[in-house]
């Protein structure tokens, strides 16, 4: 093996110009990949923000402003797109290696997660019929609170007391935001809270059910198997609970041809939100993801207010701010006191 001094001696040979060119070449080799990686991550984060915020705004527009009042059918459209596009992404584009279901027990666990996941998405879509996106996001920010509660009830694993203390402003902020919400709707609030709890329960349940090394699935493969199961459950639910969905959808489509394009765009965006979430998670740290997630909610609130002109109060915005700060504090305490 050649010593460091021999490399230094060789690098000092030749003209000063050659040494400078060599240094610049080495510097370019070091900086270029990092710059490309940084630009790639920025691109992913932009797509993640756009798809996540976009699907929320499109859901709100379809369900509240367009006359398409079928949240269960809308969720089924999302899951149908996720089924097809997940298969294409994994089987043809090799986004991730395909993981196979290895047992009946594993399939039952995935089906259970799919049902809980359906409940969270349907509940969230129903709430958008009655609540402003800004308030919907404020309630959704309480996910860490429900995650902590369900994790303790399921595993009896306690966090540090300061971690639980950080959850106080999370809940307090939503209480304040609820009192300051001009268009507060009790049923919409209950559905939004239920959807948030179901989302947290699904994450805890996933950690328990698919905890063994042989059963673990990454989020994209899990979506691949959960989506078609969700469609099987949602189709009869939509036909029974939304009996005129076919007639009204066809009528809306005849009146406005762009409705089909809007529905397709919404469904594809729902899949893009899942895909970009996976990619951002893969290419950034957990702390970065947490900070970006908190900022994403705030951006969604601002954009929704500008688009839908829903009234907001200083009390409501103050409550949401307290909740976001509480979520940030909760994430930081979890990171420090593991």
From TrEMBL:
Pfam families: TPT
Keywords of this entry: Membrane, Transmembrane, Transmembrane helix
Coarse class of the protein's main subcellular location: membrane
Disordered: annotated span: 1-27
Membrane topology: Multi-pass membrane protein
Coiled-coil intervals, chain numbering: none
Record InterPro entries: EmrE-like, Sugar_P_trans_dom, TPT_transporter
A GO cellular component entry from the record: membrane
Top-rank taxon: Eukaryota
Protein name as catalogued: Sugar phosphate transporter domain-containing protein
Organism: Lupinus angustifolius (Narrow-leaved blue lupine)
């Amino acid at each position: 093996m050649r010593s460091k001094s021999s490399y230094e001696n060789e690098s000092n040979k030749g003209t000063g110009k050659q040494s400078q060119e060599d240094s610049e070449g080495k510097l370019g080799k070091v900086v270029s990949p990092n710059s490309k990686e940084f630009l790639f991550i920025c691109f992913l984060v932009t797509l993640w923000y756009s798809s996540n915020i976009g699907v929320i705004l499109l859901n709100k527009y379809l369900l509240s402003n367009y006359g398409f009042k079928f949240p269960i059918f809308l969720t089924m459209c999302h899951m149908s797109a996720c089924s097809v596009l997940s298969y294409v992404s994994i089987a043809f584009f090799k986004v991730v290696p395909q993981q196979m279901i290895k047992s009946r027990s594993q399939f039952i666990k995935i089906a259970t997660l799919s049902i809980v996941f359906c409940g969270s998405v349907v509940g969230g879509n129903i709430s958008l019929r009655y609540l402003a996106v800004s308030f919907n996001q404020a309630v959704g920010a309480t996910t860490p609170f429900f995650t902590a509660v369900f994790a303790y009830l399921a595993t009896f694993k306690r966090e540090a007391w300061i971690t639980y203390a950080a959850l106080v402003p999370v809940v307090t902020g939503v209480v304040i935001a609820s009192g300051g919400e001009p268009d507060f709707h009790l049923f919409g609030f209950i559905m939004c809270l239920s959807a948030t709890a179901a989302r947290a329960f699904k994450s805890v349940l996933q950690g328990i059910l698919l905890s063994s090394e042989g059963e673990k699935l990454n989020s994209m493969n899990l979506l691949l198997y959960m989506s078609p199961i969700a469609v099987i459950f949602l189709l009869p639910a939509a036909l029974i609970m939304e009996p005129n969905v076919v007639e009204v959808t066809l009528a809306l489509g005849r009146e406005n041809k762009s409705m089909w394009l809007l529905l397709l765009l919404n469904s594809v965006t729902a899949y893009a939100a899942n895909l970009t979430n996976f990619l951002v998670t893969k290419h950034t740290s957990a702390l970065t993801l947490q900070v970006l997630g908190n900022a994403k909610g705030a951006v969604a609130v601002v954009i929704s207010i500008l688009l839908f002109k829903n009234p907001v109060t200083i009390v409501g915005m103050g409550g949401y701010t307290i909740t976001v700060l509480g979520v940030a504090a909760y994430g930081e305490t979890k990171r420090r006191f593991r």
